[in-house]
Specification:
Order of helices and strands: HHHHEEEHHHHHHHHHHHHH
Structural class: mainly alpha
Strand content: under 5%
Helix content: 55-70%
Number of strands: 3
Strand order of the largest sheet: 1-2-3
Radius of gyration: 23 Å
Oligomer: single chain
Shape: globular
Number of domains: 2
């Protein structure tokens, strides 16, 4: 009979915990600074975002402690039920949603508002880890690829129906875990090329781009070995690229919402809208740039203090760091976040159980996607798609879900020295 195990304090990765609370506390200070008013300087005010965030920090810490006390085999055994519960919650949103800022992805129960899309991330990560750690499961098998793709696309499509494009795109980050588990490198190359073609299709008229693809294909056939097989491959790739370019233009004109099209056009330089879609990013860049080398100091950020930056405590929290702590503070923050991601990867690679390793890579992929896209939004490198900066941005659902996501892996890692190495196989 397998005895329930409790993690020894010496086995818990304290560096990860220290980094977690460093970000959470720093995030609370940034939220406080972003909405600070001299007339109401109290750090605890439940009517303000920083007061609410303080409550969520306490709740998240309590949930995190419970996770550390749970037997690690619980997460393997209940991976599928947790995934199903998150899917049911996502479906419930479609029927009982509360619309917040154009997104119908919230459920409100007795004054408490929850965004199930945030919790679906760790639910999907657990289900993927459970399935892919099964006996004789190899990602090179076509069946495994189709099943895992379905497990990701299901929550992704439901979230898209909630008009929450940013949260849906986060599920694409699992491709990093697939690459670690055997996804051929040429899939990443194909994905990169499709992204490049998509951008070109939005900048260059489709007809000109299709002609350019045809000319390039013709020139390419002159330098390869011209046998039947190679010519058919070139023909198939060319036709696919032409069809893909045409579909990008169609989707842009007929699928995207007007505000989404405007944001993309502003990002690509096709439109200038500093008072509309481009206002957020413009003010964010001004705030970050005004911080200079060392920043203006805590509570001294004028762009934030006078609320020039919309959503400054949520999606654009990074501009508070840039304005108040400058270039040096921003570099320190990015360095510490990269240290956290590196630490998670180190922890993932030292796991004896495949389930633990796969889940660890899912954690790293999700956090990296949020980190890269959120900062990219604030400095105008990617479109504004409304995803939070993990552990920093204001939001109860986000903080709680990221805490659960990370603490489950800390708990799994704390049991890595268990002698029952085959318990999950």
């Amino acid at each position: 009979m397998i005895q329930q195990s409790q993690p020894k304090p010496s086995n818990i990765d304290w560096l990860t915990l220290v980094l977690y609370y460093t970000f959470v506390i720093a995030g609370l200070l940034c939220i406080y600074a972003s909405v600070y008013r001299e007339s109401n300087p109290m750090i605890y005010d439940a009517t303000q975002n920083y007061g609410k965030q303080l409550i969520w920090i306490g709740a998240s810490s309590f949930i995190g402690l419970l996770i550390l006390l749970v037997d690690e085999k619980f997460f393997y055994a209940f991976a599928y039920p947790i995934y199903i519960i998150t899917i049911v919650l996502l479906l419930a949103v479609l029927a009982f949603a509360t619309t917040v800022k154009g997104s119908s992805s919230w459920i409100e129960i007795g004054g408490f508002r929850m965004q199930p899309a945030e919790f679906a991330k760790f639910g999907t990560a657990l289900a993927l880890a459970r399935y892919m750690s099964g006996f004789n499961i190899k990602y090179s098998d076509r069946k495994v690829q189709l099943v895992t793709a379905g497990m990701i696309l299901l929550p992704m499509l439901i979230i898209l129906l909630q008009n929450e494009t940013g949260s849906a795109l986060v599920f694409a980050s699992f491709v990093l875990m697939f690459y670690r588990e055997g996804l051929p490198g040429y899939f990443l190359f194909i994905g990169l090329m499709m992204a490049v073609l998509a951008v070109l299709a939005l900048v260059i008229p489709s007809l000109y781009l299709i002609i350019a693809i045809g000319v390039f294909a013709g020139l390419f056939t002159l330098v390869i070995r011209r046998n039947r097989q190679n010519l058919l491959i070139v023909l198939a790739v060319t036709l696919f690229a032409m069809a893909y370019v045409s579909s990008i233009g169609y989707a842009f004109e007929n699928v995207l919402q007007p505000h989404q099209k405007t944001r993309i056009n502003v990002l690509l330089g096709k439109e200038v809208d500093l008072k509309g879609a481009g206002y957020n990013v413009q003010q964010s860049k001004i705030a970050i740039g005004s911080g200079g080398l060392l920043g203006k100091g805590f509570l001294e950020g004028t762009q934030n203090k006078f609320r020039f930056v919309p959503e400054q405590s949520t999606d654009f929290i990074f501009c508070t760091i840039g304005e108040e702590y400058g270039f040096v503070g921003s570099v320190v923050f990015i360095g510490l976040y990269m240290l956290l991601l590196w630490r998670i990867l180190v922890m993932a690679e030292r796991q004896r159980q495949k389930f633990n390793r796969i889940y660890g890579y899912c954690v790293a992929a999700i956090l990296f996607f949020h980190f890269a896209i959120n900062i990219g939004m604030t400095i105008g490198l990617v479109p504004v798609i409304g995803i939070p900066l993990p552990f920093f941005s204001y939001g109860g659902s986000a903080l709680l879900s990221f805490t659960i996501l990370l603490f489950i892996f800390i708990r799994l890692d704390a049991n890595r020295q268990n002698e029952l190495r085959g318990a999950f196989d």
